[in-house]
Amino acid sequence: MNQQPVVAVLGLGAMGHAFAANLLKKGFTVRGWNRTRARGEDLIPLGLTLSERAAQAVEGADVVIAMLSDGETTHQILSDVQSALKPGATFCQMGTIGTEATDALLAQLTQVRPDVVFIDAPVSGTKAPAENAQILILASGERSRAQEAEQVFSAISKGQVWLGDAGASSRMKLVVNSWLIGMMQSLSETVILAEKLGFTASELWSVLEGGPLAAPYAKAKLDMISGGDFTPQMHLIWALKDARLAKDAAGDARLPALENIIALWQQAAEAGYGEQDLASIYQYLKTKEA
Ligand SMILES: NC(=O)c1ccc[n+]([C@@H]2O[C@H](COP(=O)([O-])OP(=O)(O)OC[C@H]3O[C@@H](n4cnc5c(N)ncnc54)[C@H](OP(=O)(O)O)[C@@H]3O)[C@@H](O)[C@H]2O)c1
């Protein structure tokens, strides 16, 4: 019989909260921890054991998910929990933390807890797809030892792509987000141009719809722009973080559009748009119109 692993979710933000909720719905035993406890409290009636400390949450867990904002935070939390991890547990790093931080975590675990399996598993998909278990998991690491992680991934996603040795998926994640970030910038400028030439965002979509340029992601962002609702699916500051991680990982490759986006989105964050969805870059650009 295929027993469900016990899961600990560290980080109950937009994405981690959705993972924990889906696991609870599917009958998993889930332990959670979040720096700001209030963000996990609504899951307690669904069965979540909400711990005061991260190290408490991982005790006895077969699979540990870290879904934290960045590499520095994930490193800090791993250091807090590493000695409390169950022997032979699987540690899945699922945030977008870049290649250097991923390699450093792997090295840290290999040194301190060689019994623990490290799976590099960032995700493609934003808050709403995460809530509906419709994200895609980019996984890498020792798949032959990751059956329990795969059970967990199946419960929170529409699929998994395995990409090789640990670290490969964090590299691919930067590639995917570079595309997403470029698309968002281009879409914002396209809507501004459309408006200048007398068209609405809806009219633009009516022309794109059904054709090869009609990406569902663009439609979701056009709807945000049309509705003026920039409630974060993905915070602009996290997208800016990813743009920087991609640029750093690119080494000496020239990525001029990405470099310009980093400078522009930094200005937008400084102007107060950081906590809004990345589609608010459109709004920021509108404020710059004469
Ligand atoms: N949202 C998306 O569309 C999306 C999609 C794919 C990947 N990602 C990536 O997934 C990760 C999480 O994203 P999210 O959207 O869930 O972000 P979020 O809602 O901002 O959640 C961030 C999480 O990190 C925790 N955190 C931040 N700084 C911390 C610190 N110093 N110590 C302890 N905990 C800390 C937060 O705790 P508090 O609640 O206490 O602040 C929260 O649990 C990021 O790497 C992001 O780039 C996001």
What descriptors fit this protein?
290 residues; alpha/beta; Rossmann fold; N-(1-d-carboxylethyl)-l-norvaline Dehydrogenase, domain 2; 2 domains; six-stranded parallel β-sheet; three-stranded mixed β-sheet; binds NADP nicotinamide-adenine-dinucleotide phosphate
Tell me about this structure.
This is 3-hydroxyisobutyrate dehydrogenase. One of its GO terms (molecular function) is NAD binding. It comes from Trabulsiella guamensis ATCC 49490. The protein is 50% helix and 12% strand. By secondary structure, it is α/β, with parallel strands linked by helices. It folds into 2 domains: 7-166, Rossmann fold (3-Layer(aba) Sandwich); 174-287, N-(1-d-carboxylethyl)-l-norvaline Dehydrogenase, domain 2. The chain has a 6-stranded parallel β-sheet with strand order 3-2-1-4-5-6, sandwiched between helices. Strand 5 (90-93), helix 4 and strand 6 form a beta-alpha-beta unit. Helix 7 (168-196) packs across helix 12 (281-287) and helix 10 runs antiparallel to helix 11. The longest helix is centred in the middle third of the chain and has 29 residues, at 168-196. The termini are far apart. It binds NADP nicotinamide-adenine-dinucleotide phosphate (NAP).
What layout of secondary structure does this protein have?
Layout (H helix, E strand, L loop, with lengths): L6 E4 L3 H12 L4 E4 L15 E2 L3 H5 L4 E4 L4 H11 L8 E4 L5 H14 L4 E4 L2 E2 L2 H5 L3 E5 L7 H10 E6 L5 H29 L4 H8 L7 H12 L8 H14 L6 H18 L7 H7 L3
Helix pairs in contact: 3-4, 7-9, 7-10, 7-12, 10-11
Bound molecules: NADP nicotinamide-adenine-dinucleotide phosphate.
The site of NADP nicotinamide-adenine-dinucleotide phosphate (NAP) has 24 residues, from helix 1.
